[in-house]
Amino acid sequence: MRPIHHVTPLLRSTPLTRRHGAEVWLKLESAQPSGSFKLRGMGRACQAAVASGASGLVSSSGGNAGYAVAYAGRQLGVPVTVVVPRRTATRTRELIASEGAEVIVEGEVWDEAHAHALQIASDRGGAVIHPFDQPEVWEGHASLIEEVAAQLPPPGAVVVSVGGGGLMCGVLRGMHAVGWGQVPLLAVETHGAASYAAALRAGHPVTLPTIDSLALTLGAKRVCDRAVAWAKQHPVEPWQCDDAAAVRSCGRFLDDHRVLVEPSCGAALASVYDHAPPLQDRSVLLVVCGGASVTRAQLEGWERGTRSSSEPPAP
User: Fold this and answer.
1) What's the pTM value of the predicted model, to 2 decimals?
2) 75-110 burial, b if ≥16 CB within 10 A, otherwise e?
3) Do 165 and 241 have their domain in common?
């Protein structure tokens, strides 16, 4: 099967290399047709489902996965239903609908939307495309590393943002496939959505009581089991930043590279902009996971809001 995703650019970042003190390479998944890395895994899973006889697709999403499924469904000529939580931006819903998908709004967070998607699939029929916990999804995401390895020797570290853990599982799968099994991976979250760090502390997946972060597309209250299991097979270092750092990094990246990304991606960027200790003296491959729904006006609003909330109170 010909992949639905595109091969994306791999760029050496002069501004980030200068700031970091060692080479920083960017895998620009923001250049995918759906605006994020999600098209790799969602596209692969959708193709597998249709090849197995599915006549319709059902997914749940905070935004990017649903947009990718909608895009893939249109390419494959099958109807798509995407369930999103109420916190998903209107623009994101419109993008999903623009690909011909039915958009249903249910629940406050992704976990609640996913439960409703499962019920819809049970009632109506249709293959469920999980946004992060599905082997075909990981297989699709692994292609990202295969592309990089064809152009670049093993870096000192790989940096990814972590929501439910699908990108991380795919990247690690790809790293082991190309012989990068000893290259450490920095798993980045925002403080208000750090379900992976909580799982590592507990030794197993745990469910956060709530998601309290602007980085809504990192907003899975519980990561997949495979993401936790990988930490026993590969050097994985968790790292978190606050929302202000993620938003600030989006602005810096826009100035440095003329690319607009979501705070979920800004969290990974913050690890380099803000000198995360695990990356010290290491060359870095940073997955610029992208994000389709962000606008310049939104970023400016987030910058004002996080700047205000992080300022000390007046005496």
Assistant:
1) 0.93
2) bbebebbbbbbebbbeebbebbeebebebbebbebb
3) yes
